[in-house]
Amino acid sequence: MSESGRRATVARGPVEPRERIQALDMVRGFALFGVLLVNMFNFGAFSPIWTRATDRVAFSLMHFFFETKSWRLFSLLFGVGFALQLEGARARGTPFLGTYLRRVMVLFVIGMGHALLFPGDVLMVYAELALVLLLFRNASTRVLLALAVALLALYPLGRAANTLVSGEAVTVQGVDIERARAANEELRSTHPHAVGSLADVMAANARVIPPNPFGQPLGLESGLGFLAMFLLGLGVGKRRIFADLGGHLTLIRRAAMWGLGLGAAGTLADLAISSALSRQAVVGGARAAWTLAAELSFTFGSTALALGYAAAIVLMSRSPRLRRLVEPFGPVGRLALTGYLAQTLAFTTLFYGYGLGQAFRLGPAAVLVCAVVIYAAQVPASAWWARRYRFGPAEWLWRALTYLKLPPMRA
């Protein structure tokens, strides 16, 4: 067992900053950029009205590298963290359930506050599904893998079955640019995010509290997909891969090679099939089959690419030459909750009417640039904070309410 693995196992109480697994923080920090970018696209950049070449390139980069992949990767890490907490409690012989339930409850409350500012909050969903994850804490890694695959497959297979049962043909409607522009103009002048005060925004966003993670089981971003990645992460944690990286390098190399390769192939296949469907190049009964193939490719391609990202970053973190490329992600990942909330403060100030009022006015290229600028500011700010303090502000609050005591803040 590596030194970091021993420290993680025998730690008394919550994990101290010096005992953290640095590679895990680097992966988390990388995932946080993708989460930021995709969240920012929700304020008008997904609209088809942005037809310039730069916007198309920016959209393609977001879709290929980050859309769905980022939240899958972040959810995987949540499952890994659950496994590490469970292992630590068992190694110490201390109660787990009470502390865990308080931790989840505090996370949900933080998510409620966050959702009032940004309706795409994921913290409440994580807290709700974390209770479901408890049911699988004693499951074997094989069972966890099988359940994860089944849950991921539910989206494409369920949609295909629904099409067959309903007898409805799969159709792809053409894009009416003029209608889309008119809709976007209306959003600019009427949506609370674009023209409302802070009170208007909070009133509109309050409707998402509490979320129903199982409300759309056949949606691409259903809570079942999040749960699937939780289960995969729990399986990774049970294998102690992050706790003993040196002992699993062969497996990690294979995960990087196959994950990146199959993930890229699956995403490209989805793009190619979807393009053919949109051009009406596939007609008749074959359309349903090709739609299923596209959705299977994207679902499992996104998952494979997320796993490939994690494995590649771990390998780079262990290379003297490549570590410097991924090391800046570490402090951001260490302060992930604070960083996630700070990102929301940044982009809501950019988009909302009480701020700079850019909602539904920025296309993919501009949003990509803004996301890079925000994240570029986070990297040195997180590093500065991590050198001086043991926890981020949000992490400190979460820990204090979870363990019912005030942890020291200064490093």
What is the fold's blueprint, element by element?
Layout: H1 3-10, H2 22-41, H3 53-65, H4 69-92, H5 97-117, H6 123-133, H7 141-166, H8 177-190, H9 192-195, H10 198-205, H11 223-238, H12 249-278, H13 286-317, H14 323-326, H15 329-334, H16 336-351, H17 364-388, H18 393-403
Task: Describe the model.
With 411 residues, this protein is mainly α. The chain has one domain. Helices cover 70% and strands 0% of the residues. The protein contains 18 helices and no strands. α2 crosses α13. It is globular, with a radius of gyration of 22 Å. The N terminus is likely disordered.
- End-to-end separation: 27 Å
Radius of gyration: 22 Å
Mean pLDDT across all residues, rounded? Answer: 90
Give the number of helices: 18
Give the % helix. over 70%
> Structural class, from secondary structure content?
mainly alpha
Broad shape: globular
Order of helices and strands: HHHHHHHHHHHHHHHHHH
Instruction: Compute the number of structural domains.
Output: 1
Work out the number of β strands.
0
- How would you characterize the largest beta sheet? none
Task: Note the beta-strand portion.
Answer: under 5%
Q: Which blocks of ≥5 consecutive residues have pLDDT under 50?
A: 1-13
